[in-house]
Design brief:
heterodimer, A: 575 residues, alpha/beta, Methane Monooxygenase Hydroxylase, Chain G, domain 1, 16 helices, 21% strand, globular, B: 236 residues, alpha+beta, Ubiquitin-like (UB roll), Fumarate Reductase Iron-sulfur Protein, Chain B, domain 2, 2 domains, 9 helices, binds flavin-adenine dinucleotide
Amino acid sequence: MYHRFDAIIVGAGGAGLMAAAQFASEGDVAVVSKLYPTRSHTGAAQGGISAALGNLEEDHWIWHMFDTVKGGDYLVDQDAAEVLSREAIDAVYELEHMGLPFNRTPDGKIDQRRFGGHTRNYGEAAVRRACYAADRTGHMILQTLYQQGIKNQVRYFNEVMMVDLLMTDDGVCNGIIGLDIQTGEIHIFHAKAVLLATGGFGRVFKVTSNALALTGDACAILFRRGLPLEDMEFFQFHPTGINKLGILLSEACRGEGGIIRNGKGERFMERYAPTLLDLAPRDMVSRSIHQEIRAGNGVDGQDYVHLDLTHLPAEVIEQKLPDISEFVRTYMGLDPITDLVPIQPTAHYAMGGIPTDVEGRVTVDGDNTVVPGLYAAGEVACVSVHGANRLGTNSLVDLVVFGRRAGKHMLEFMRQNDHQPLDPEPDYRARAEIDTLMSNETEENGADIREELQVHMMDDAGVFRTAEGLQRLQSKLAELKDRFSRVGVRDKGTTMNMDLMETLELGYLLDVSEAVVAGALAREESRGGHFREDFPERDDANWLRHTLAYKTSGGIEMGSKPVVITRFEPKERTY
Amino acid sequence: MQVQFRIERFNPDQDTKPWFGEYTVEVEPTDRVLDALNLIKWHQDGTLTFRRSCAHGICGSDAMRINGRNRLACKELIRDYGDKITIEPMLGFRVIKDLVVDMEDFFASYRTLQPYLINDEPAGVGRERPQSPEEREVFDDTTKCIMCGACTTACPITWTNEDFLGPAAIVNAHRFIYDSRDQGANERLEVLNSKSGVWRCRTIFNCTEACPRGIQVTRAIEQIKRTLLTGDNNPD
Ligand SMILES: Cc1cc2nc3c(=O)[nH]c(=O)nc-3n(C[C@H](O)[C@H](O)[C@H](O)COP(=O)(O)OP(=O)(O)OC[C@H]3O[C@@H](n4cnc5c(N)ncnc54)[C@H](O)[C@@H]3O)c2cc1C
Ligand code: FES
C-alpha cells in the first residue's frame, strides 16, 4: 500500500512522541511503530529526568552541563550538552503543562532527587536535580506524550515495522518501507522528512534491562545503506540489574540512600570513588563491582553483589520506590525493606548510534554533512550528549529536548521542500529480504543464533574488553552471520507473523554487533563505558575523537569525527 | 522442572475454530511464564504467537488468561502454578491469532473519555502549575495504568455489553477528573453518567483482582459514582 505524508516518525517512545507533539496543528504526519505506542520502552524508565530547576537547592544549567561532559569522560560534544542542559528546564515545564504528574514539594513545585554524577558547583557534592514521578517517570512521560497525541489526533500506524529506508540517488531521504505485522502487508511511506526514534539495542547482550523489541533496527538499516554509526563501542552497563534477569533497579535506589555491598558486607565504593561513593557514574560503579567479583568478593564467591536498602525507612521504600520494591518481591521473592538484593551489572544504554547534529539531522561524516530529510532522536541517535558514558536521567532529557528540536526542524523542512520522487519499485529490497527469509529451508534456528550472539557479546564486548577477546568475537560474528543466511522463518503465514519479525530483528542484531565490535577493537584506550584491559588508560592525544563505522563491501571501515569542546577542557575524571 | 502447557491456538488463515496445543518445557521454578512461552516459540513451535516486550510488567503487552485468570505472563512465576499451566487469550476481544487479540475497541473506549489534561488557562512561562503533594496523591493510584486490558476483559459486564466503556477507560478518566490541574471533569462525567458509563458497574471486583499494577479499580469507579451523586469533586 502507498501512503504519502509530509513527515513520518518511526518509533513511538518518548523521542518519537515528543517530535510528533510539535506538529500539533500543522503538517500531515504519521507515527509508525512496531509496538503499540504505550508499549515502548520509555515506559520502563524509572528514576527521573534532570533539569536544573533549583526547586530544592541552588542549581544552574551550566553545572548540569559540566556534569554531563565530565560524566561522559569528555567525549561529549559540548555544544550539544549546552543545548541539553539549558533546554531541559523548559522541556520539563512543557511536560508538566501537558499534564505529567510529577511528585511535588510541600510548596507545590516539582520535587527533585539526587542521581549519580549530578553535582553542585562542578563536582562539590550531589545535587537534587532529577524531577520524578515516583519510580515510574518514564511511564508517565510515555503516557503524557501519548495522551497529547490523542488530543492532537496524531495518525498512528501501530504494529508496523520499518524494514527499509528510502533515499534518492542524490542522497535525500524520501520515505520508509514498513511491514504490517498484523497483516503481512508491505507499506510504502513516501515523505518529505523521516525521523528515526527506534530506541536502543540492548538485546545484543545476554543480561539486559532492555525490552525484547530493542534490537537496533534503524541503526542496522542505515548501516546496511552505507550510512555511518557513531561511537558504537560505548555501551552502558548499569550497576544494579537484578541478578541473572537484568531487570533494572533504578539508580534512584542509591539516590534515596541505598548502598552496594560486596560479599563481606563492605561498602566497597569507598575505595573507588571516595566523594560520590555509590553515586559515582555507572561505568565506574559497574567496573568496581566486577573488580570486587574478580577479587573473590562476590557474594559466596559468586558473580553478584548486594544492593542494601535495609537501613532506609520503610516509607521511603514504599513511597518513592514502589515499583522497584515490587520487582524485588515478584522476581526474587525478597523484601527490600529487610533483605539484601542480589545484583549484577546489566546492559542498559547505547551511547552510540546514528550521528546527528543538534537539530536532529542525520550526518554522514567527520564534517557533519547532513542527509536532507533524515532525522534521528532519542537512544537511537548520537548527538553526542552522552559521550563515553551517560549520566542517569539524561536520556529522558535527551528524548524530550532533541525530540522536540527534531520535530520543529522537520516542520520547517517540510514547509520549504517538496516530496522527492520515489524509485519505480521502492520496496524491492525489503520484499527480497523478506522473501528469502520466508522461503529458506529452516536449516538453522534463529533462536540458537541469537542466544549464542548474546552470550558471546556479553563475554567479550561487555564491561571488560581485550583485543584478543574482540578478535575472537569477530570470528564468532562471521560464523553466526553465515549461519543466519540459512535461517528460514518457521511461521509461513501472513497474519501476525512474529517469527518473521524476530528473524528480521536477529539480522539487525548481528549487524549492530559488528559495528560495536569494530569500534571496540579500533579504540585502543579506556574511556567511560569502553574499558580495554590491554589499554587501561584514557588517551586524549589519540582518542579524543568520535569513531564512525561504515559498512562497505570490503568489511567495516572506521572514520572519525572531532569532539566539540567549548567550555570545559578535558581533565582527569575522579569522583 | 518439567511443565506441561496447554495453549489455545487459532490461526485465521487456516483454522475455523480455536484448538489447544500441548507442549512440555524444561524450566526453572523462578522462570516467568513468558520465559516458557518464549522457549516454546523459539525451540518447539515458531508459529506460536503472543505479544511481549518489556518482560517485567511495565509495557502491558502480554495480558492473557493463565489458568483462567487474567495475568501478565511476564509477572507470573512458574513456581506459583506448578507443572500444569493452561493459557488462553483474554476474553471478549476478537482473537487475531493465538494469544494476540484486537485491542482497537479498547483504545477507542479509552479515547472517548478525553484522556489528556484539559486546561485552557495559560500555564505561565518558566514554571509549573502548582499542585500540593496531597492533591497529587488523590489520583496517584490511577496513574499506574499500563492499558494491558486485564481489568476490562475480566469484567463480565463487558463480555455481554458492547457499549460499556469498561474499567480501564474509567480508570484513565479518574486519573484526570481528580487532577487539581484539570478542568475537563464535567465533560468526562457526563459520558460516565450515560448508559455506557459507570452505572453499568455491578461492583463485582473482578477488575481489581485482575489488575497487575494493583490499582484499586473498583474503588476508583465507586469514587466517580459518588461524585456523580453528590457533585463533590473530592473522591474521599
Ligand atoms: C529499565 C530502564 C530504566 C531507565 N530509567 C531511566 C531514567 O530514570 N532516566 C533516564 O533518563 N533514562 C532512563 N532509561 C533510559 C531511557 O528510558 C531510554 O533510553 C529511552 O526511554 C529511550 O527512548 P526512545 O524514545 O529513544 O525509544 P523507546 O522508548 O525504546 O521507543 C522505541 C520505539 O521505536 C519503535 N521501533 C523500534 N524498532 C522499530 C521498527 N523497526 N519499526 C517501527 N518502530 C520501531 C518501538 O515500537 C518504540 O515505539 C531507562 C532505561 C531502562 C531500560
Ligand atoms: S511484556 Fe511488558 S508487561 Fe509483560
